[in-house]
């Protein structure tokens, strides 16, 4: 079981940057994949990026490649906790959404949402003038 807590959302202007954080705890963490999904008003939730906790393999949606970077900071080897970051650069109004951190207890980074059973409550990113 995983617990995920997002932070770092806010209001920024187009072209600016923002970094989201996701504090992850639980077990088994080393064999998990951590995702960022987003949901804009009136739209379906979509996968943004993913990273495997142990190997650091990553995946990105096409619409964020070259602008967003996902990283993880492993606090230790005993599943005590990790932080996953999403660095977002050159933000535009289309990036406005609630961003959710989510977890799958397998080291697989496809965006099918199958097995993505653990979710944070989300953090709002608002990109506007």
Describe this structure in words.
The strands form 2 sheets. Strands 2, 4, 5, 6, 9, 10 and 11 form a 7-stranded mixed β-sheet that branches. Strands 1-3-8-7 form a 4-stranded antiparallel β-sheet, with no helix packed on it. The model has no long low-confidence stretch (mean pLDDT 92). It is globular, with a radius of gyration of 14 Å. By secondary structure, the protein is mostly beta strands.
Averaging pLDDT over every residue, what do you get? 92
The radius of gyration over CA amounts to 14 Å
Helix content: under 10%
Q: What general form does the structure show? A: globular
Distance N to C terminus: 40 Å
Main beta-sheet strand count, sense and barrel state? 7 strands, mixed
Order of helices and strands: EEEEEEEEEEE
Count of alpha and pi helical runs:
0
The number of E-state strands comes to 11
- The helix/strand class is mainly beta
* Oligomeric organization of the protein chains: single chain
* Poorly predicted ranges: none
Give the percentage of residues in beta strands: over 45%
Give a topology summary.
Elements: E1 2-7, E2 10-12, E3 18-26, E4 33-39, E5 46-52, E6 58-60, E7 68-74, E8 82-88, E9 97-104, E10 116-119, E11 123-127
Parallel strand pairs: 2-11
Antiparallel strand pairs: 1-3, 3-8, 4-5, 4-9, 5-6, 7-8, 9-10, 9-11
Can you describe this structure in just a few lines?
This protein has strands at residues 2-7, 10-12, 18-26, 33-39, 46-52, 58-60, 68-74, 82-88, 97-104, 116-119, 123-127.
